[in-house]
Amino acid sequence: MHTYRLRCRMLVPLPIARVFEVFENPYNLAKITPPWLAFRVISRDQVVMRTGAEIEYRIRWLGLPLHWKTRITAYEPPFSFTDEQERGPYPLWRHHHTFQPTPEGVVVGDHVEYALPFGPLGRLAHKLVVGNQLRRIFTYRQQKLAEMFGTPCRTLLAPETSTRAESLSEEVAAHGRARL
Question: At 175, which CATH number?
Fold first, then answer.
């Protein structure tokens, strides 16, 4: 399976508790997702964030309705949580959210590992459509979060995508430079 990574980071000049409470409310996802995806949480019960919590969504991608279900597989408030797709369009979708307090505020990090179906056709779709759309979605998300927080936020790493192999080579190279 050919895997990809999406990464981005932003600095939010607020206390970590305030920042984390926005992210741990899954209903805020609709507020930070572009309207062209028509995102809705459709879980039957009220979702309370915790390890094992399940969240069901409906989105429209290229006009097609898609059902998506994720499970919170790690939850360490207020520093991180991970959601993994259990049902949806990707064979693999693992989204790790991190919150690192700094003297200037909180560095909010997104690290998504994902794969597309259909082998070579999936790779072509990623190159032509999916990679760009994911970068647009996460750019929109950063803009909307700044509005929600009501304070200027700073992008530290604009949304970028890479293949898993590219990401691993970059990490090895960076680790080697850090040791010099």
Answer: 3.30.530.20
